[in-house]
TrEMBL record:
Belongs to the FAD-dependent oxidoreductase family. Keywords: FAD, Flavoprotein, Oxidoreductase. Residues 8-350 form the FAD/NAD(P)-binding domain. PANTHER family: APOPTOSIS-INDUCING FACTOR 1 (PTHR43735), FERROPTOSIS SUPPRESSOR PROTEIN 1 (PTHR43735:SF3). SUPFAM superfamilies: FAD/NAD(P)-binding domain. This is FAD/NAD(P)-binding domain-containing protein. The lineage of its organism: Eukaryota, Fungi, Dikarya, Basidiomycota, Agaricomycotina.
Length: 436
């Protein structure tokens, strides 16, 4: 077992949720406790700007930063960053690491917080196997080359990520044909079905993971995309062929060109991408954007009941503690994209959950009652369409919902893609430069 002098607060995942929690805990944690901030990668990355980094040369350097004790914690600290190291197993009072820390791969804790987020294909998020930042940067540079080279792009899924990707491509390549195939009557995921009324016979989702998006915003975004020559195929789904394991590199020719083999990224030539409504779109770059997958495998292996079957999200109670049956439910919290706390999976809510968990961990130390998580009444969404265009809305308590145009979205998000908010995360003795 590792050094037992301290009572450890283990945080698994050092991205938005985990890193914010560490920052919030540092000033309020009593003596004798220390934070162990663990990540599978040796660097931090910033998903909010990853789409531009996949297209615009130079941006790949802006979205990765070193992740070390000296960049995260103040001088003379007892807190530690352990990276790159994957947590491989959860036990009631300890976690198991893939590499030893202080002479052991098993590290005991007072409380542990799972903040392992979600997985999405690169370029949106790096593979957890790309432990060095050079590997992710290399993948982003490859993506920049491929998008430059392709003749015609097909985006499967017109949610916020698909739309923002289209906007980034259009800003760099004004004439490349772009098509979005989306299974709704307009872009994004607006409320097109009736809201659950709470009737006795009605099945209410356990967690409302993707609350509907303001319909007016969805229509504004669809008009904006059309005005920028983005072809929209709505109320339809692309048919994604299942790839056989030994398919790699084999080109299947048909009389009318190449048949799409279901792979993503740059294709060997223009392919036919078919939809359920029998539309055929020609493209030689396919971008898949149909949501993210909670990174909850770690907890599934230790306590399958702690994960929702339908969504893969970790089940938490009102205090953000994991509802566990095998693992002790007194010891673990889950926050950020991996938790089933209701609401969108966005950085803003990950920050609020981190603050709530920090308060409750210190309440537990002080033997004071725990507080229920409260996401607050502020709501809103900003959808950037490249650096200069976009649309959004904010809902302010008692004042109502306000639509926002390109000017505000450009200033608040589009130009810098929130990179200026990422820098202040690092509160370590070693200063790191954010290239904005
Ligand atoms: C393209 C894109 C655009 C977005 N735009 C916006 C936006 O404009 N505004 C907004 O608010 N949100 C946006 N989001 C969402 C936002 O990025 C996420 O909500 C946020 O990153 C969630 O943070 P997290 O810490 O929960 O998870 P993640 O950011 O997914 O981080 C999880 C961390 O856990 C680590 N990890 C995983 N498994 C292990 C393990 N076993 N052991 C150790 N470490 C592990 C990973 O390496 C990673 O560092 C966007 C997301 C994407 C992909």
């Amino acid at each position: 077992m590792a050094d037992q002098t301290y009572r450890n607060i283990i945080i698994v995942g050092a991205s938005t949720a985990g890193h914010t929690l560490a920052n919030d805990l540092v000033p309020i944690l009593p003596e004798g406790y220390r934070i162990l901030l663990i990540d599978a990668l040796e660097y931090s990355y910033f998903p909010q700007a990853s789409l531009r980094a996949a297209i615009v040369p130079g941006w790949e350097e802006k979205i990765v930063l070193p992740l070390k004790t000296s960049t995260c914690f103040p001088q003379g600290t007892n807190h530690r960053v352990i990276a790159p190291t994957r947590v491989t197993q959860l036990k009631k009072n300890s976690v198991v690491l893939e590499k030893p820390f202080e002479g052991s791969t098993e590290v005991p804790f007072f409380k542990a917080v799972i903040a392992t987020g979600a997985t999405q294909p690169s370029p949106m998020r790096p593979s957890l196997n790309w432990t060095s930042q050079q590997e992710y940067m290399k993948a982003l540079r490859k993506s920049q080359e491929e998008i430059k080279k392709c003749e015609s792009l097909v985006i499967i899924g017109g949610g916020t990520v698909g739309v923002e990707f289209a906007g980034e491509v259009r800003a760099s390549y004004p004439d490349k044909p772009i098509t979005i195939i989306h299974n709704r009557s307009t872009l994004l995921t607006p409320l097109t079905e009736p809201r659950p009324s709470g009737g006795l016979d009605e099945k209410i989702p356990e967690s409302w993971t993707s609350p509907p998006i303001n319909l007016k915003l969805a229509n504004t975004v669809a008009s904006m995309a059309k005005s920028q020559k983005v072809n929209l195929i709505l109320n339809d789904k692309a048919i994604i062929p299942q790839r056989k394991p030994n398919d790699d590199g084999i080109e299947i020719r048909t009389i009318d060109g190449y048949e799409w083999d279901g792979s993503f990224g740059l294709q060997p030539a223009l392919c036919n991408i078919c939809t359920e409504n029998r539309e055929i779109v020609k493209g030689d770059y396919v971008f898949l954007s149909i949501g993210n997958k909670p990174n909850s495998g770690l907890i599934v292996n230790s306590d399958g009941n702690a994960v929702e079957k339908s969504t893969g999200l970790i089940r938490v109670d009102q205090r953000l503690k994991i509802k566990a049956s095998i693992l002790s439910d007194a010891n673990y919290y889950a926050i950020g994209d991996v938790s089933n706390a209701p609401g969108m999976k966005i950085a803003y809510l990950a920050l609020i959950q981190a603050k709530s968990a920090a308060t409750n961990i210190v309440n537990e130390i002080n033997h004071t009652p725990l507080a229920a998580y409260n996401p607050g009444m502020f709501g809103g969404l900003f959808v950037a369409f490249g650096p200069d265009m976009g649309a959004g809305y904010v809902t302010i308590p008692y004042l109502g919902t306000w639509a926002l145009g390109s000017g505000i979205v450009r200033t608040a998000k589009g130009k810098k893609l929130l990179l200026d908010k990422w820098g202040p995360f690092r509160k370590g003795e070693e200063r790191v430069n954010i290239l904005i």
